[in-house]
Amino acid sequence: MSEKTLDAAELRRRTQELLAAHPPARTDRLDFLKARFDAGLAWVHYPEGLGGLGAPRALQAAVEAELEAAGAPDNDPRRIGIGLGMAAPTVLRYGTEEQKRRFLRPLWVGEEVWCQLFSEPGAGSDLAALGTRAVRESGGDWVVNGQKVWTSSAHVARWAILIARTDPDVPKHAGITYFVCDMSDPGVEVRPLRQLTGEAEFNEVFLTDVRIPDAHRLGEIGDGWRVAQTTLMNERVSIGGMRLPREGGMIGPVSRTWRERPALRTHDLHQRLLTLWVEAEVARLTAERLRQQLVAGQPGYEGSGMKLSFARLNQEISGLEVELRGEEGLLYDDWTMRRPALVDFTGRDAGYRYLRSKGNSIEGGTSEVLLNIVAERVLGLPSEPRTDKDVAWKDLTR
Length: 398
Description:
By secondary structure, the protein is an alpha+beta fold. The protein has helices at residues 8-21, 29-38, 60-69, 81-94, 97-109, 224-240, 251-260, 267-293, 302-325, 350-356, 367-378, and strands spanning 114-117, 133-136, 142-148, 159-165, 176-182, 188-193, 202-212, 217-218.
């Protein structure tokens, strides 16, 4: 960058230049997004050449306001949320320059969808116990075999962030390496997992002799657990700290029903709604503060607390909504087996919200695990006794 100060006025000027050169009404959506990325207006806090300008993160709002006012297209962030919220920050922090230039642009514009191959049938809450193996061949490539589960978007993903065991002879946290996996490899098999909602938004993924070049490794061999912490902390912020307007999210539909249908009201339901409304607003403002803290650097463990709050509130609010609607709340709009590309909490009925929110306390880190993280890493309480931390993974009881 030149020495010229990058303030909000300068970013607005650059945004106006982008709009003048690529009028949204006459420019192909993908072409506009690529031009925006190349102008450094995708993530203004990212480095130049990688979608940003090295500007303060807080100035992104000035860019978004100008683009929204002009009717410019966005990159459909809900569809590519795993790429934006989890893969991109990890690639930026640990990727080589070649990896950053290869992956970040198509990720941000939405040309390539990402998924996360972390959890396994025997390694969910205890993720470090994972057993998927990556063995390096003499030519340098890695051959991966194993099974992953609860994989959102695997059925539409081009790439996956993957952690696998590369050394079974050391303690479980030390023998993990982090990779970028090509989901089009013939050894990748994606099977739908039908959920309580009737949909198959999640998948299980079987990896059979999947070949990954060493050039697609993120971080050092055996350092995958540390790399994964960047992914997981960003995941919890992206789930629990999403930007919402007042009465955004789950509290919105139940508040509208309360106002529009006074015949459904009772004193008890009123008291519960008031309590949850206040808690939802506190969570929204806390999430805003958390996002502002990100301006200073990487997310901390506070994101675990936000994700905990997100799960609890969604489950309590959706339960209240079903009660408020009475018999109508027991209806369900569509049990058709579908494989959606995203989750739409507010675009469906109360029954869907009630059922889907049950997964909020499991996905993105179970509430039980997150309570431990908050207790130990945020509050500084003593750790739970763990007898397996210094035992080689191969010697653990499974």
